[in-house]
Amino acid sequence: MNKYIWLIILGVLIVGGGIVYRVFFLKAEKVPVVSGKVKEFTVLAKKDTWSFVPENIEVERGDKIIMTVVNEDSYDHGIAIDAFGVSQRMPALSTINIEFVVTQAGDFPFYCSVPCGEGVVDGKKRSHFDMVGKIKVRDIVKAQ
Ligand SMILES: [Cu+2]
Question: In the chain, where are the structural domains located?
Fold first, then answer.
């Protein structure tokens, strides 16, 4: 048979497999949802505390998040949210904006992605590894 016929058959199998998976096998809670709502937050990398303020953010699945992240320190930080493909450097004394859609429900950590040192805050040792926060995404669509 003509090689192009085989290529077309292969293409139909790949696309058809995707459609069959999406229609019959993909669970409702795994289907990406877009709510159309926009939620804006400001998160501070608070000066010389190695912490994000606030540390917890609550949103609903499908929301578009516009996050303004302010680095109050005179050294660099970063912010990364693995689940939503966010990773940005925050230069010293800068403000950055990140946008993403929370398509999945659950608890997702965000953390500093740039080694930024350590220090003592209120008698306790704090460091780069303490710069962790959490985005709690509530499910608005009930799974069947
Ligand atoms: Cu850091």
Answer: 1-31, 38-138
Q: How far is the CA of 24 from the centre of ligand 1 (A)?
A: 43
Which residue from 34, 60, 77, 78 is spatially nearest to 135, judged by alpha carbons?
60
User: Could you tell me the distance, in angstroms and rounded to a whole number, from the CA of residue 103 to the centre of ligand 1?
Assistant: 26
* pLDDT value of residue 144: 42
Percent of the chain with pLDDT over 70: 97
Centroid of ligand 1 to alpha carbon of 89 (angstroms): 10
In Å, how far are 10, 37, 101 from 139, measured between CA atoms? 37, 14, 14
Q: Residue 110 C-alpha to ligand 1 middle, in angstroms?
A: 11
- Domain 38-138 sits in which CATH superfamily? Cupredoxins -  blue copper proteins (2.60.40.420)
Ligand 1 geometric centre to CA of 100 (Å): 21
The confidence band for 143, taking pLDDT boundaries of 50, 70 and 90, is: very low
Of 89, 92, 85, 96, nearest to 113 by C-alpha is 89
Instruction: Categorize the per-residue pLDDT at 141 as very low, low, confident or very high, splitting at 50, 70 and 90.
Output: low
